[in-house]
Amino acid sequence: MRIKDILRDILEFLMPRKCVMCGERLRGGESFICGHCFVHLPFTYYHLVEQSQLEKQFWALFPIERATSMFYHDGKNTRNIIYQIKYNGNPEVGRHMAYLYAEELEKCHYFDDIDMLIPLPLHWKRQLKRHYNQSHYICQGIHEKTGIPVEKGVVKRIKNNISQTHLNATQRLSNVEGIFQVTHPEKIKGKHVLLVDDVVTTGATLSSCAKELAKVPDVKVSILTLSVASRTAAPVLEEDNIDVSIYGIPLME
Ligand SMILES: [Zn+2]
Questions:
Q1: Do 150 and 116 meet the contact criterion of CB atoms below 8 Å apart?
Q2: What mean pLDDT value characterizes the chain?
Q3: How far is the CA of 178 from the centre of ligand 1 (A)?
Q4: Quick one: pLDDT at residue 16?
Q5: Beta 67-72 vs 220-228: how paired, if at all?
Q6: Gap from CA of 16 to ligand 1 centroid (Å)
Q7: Are residues 50 and 22 both part of a single domain?
Q8: Cα of 166 from ligand 1 centre, angstroms
Q9: Cα of 96 to ligand 1 centre, how many Å?
Q10: CA 210, CA 67: separation in Å to the nearest integer?
Q11: pLDDT at 232
């Protein structure tokens, strides 16, 4: 056994790594989430259907090219993933999840015409408080799998709008109007950009940013998030139409 392995085992014994969803001890080869929790994640499978409800939700706000999310954000355990990424100083969880999602999306050629990844920017005051932008980490995970470049400085958030949490749909739309500004239009002119965030709820904030990006000539915008807040955007899957497994799990398990 090499010294490195011995040290790793000692560290593992002293500070066992725990699953961010169930809190159980992780086994060798598992990262952040145990195998049991991972296979039971409520995956959306949006990328396997045409015109998913999520895309329809966005199209009501802005003509994006396509949109997808990895899992529904509707249980205590899945909410815990986003909590870790966003509020508990553990954005590496986001990078890891994004890597796994990119692995699946690549099989469907999801990234074939994407030129760059753009993390949804935080206002500088919010980023200063959090010390990081979780969307950067999610982009990083996709980049590590696909090699698509991440462009962090293309668009910025110029207004520190109040939290959307307690606003209704109409208030959410007006709360995010004009809060983004493209700072380097030359970098995205004629490109297909993938705008990336952790969660989509009504889609108001992401649509506001997409609208701003699309003011640059010949820009196409698609959207990817790790989770989606509502199951009302659930796609209808028909077993006969799909003969693939995802994340190594038979689709209609
Ligand atoms: Zn677990």
A1: yes
A2: 85
A3: 41
A4: 82
A5: parallel
A6: 14
A7: no
A8: 31
A9: 15
A10: 12
A11: 58
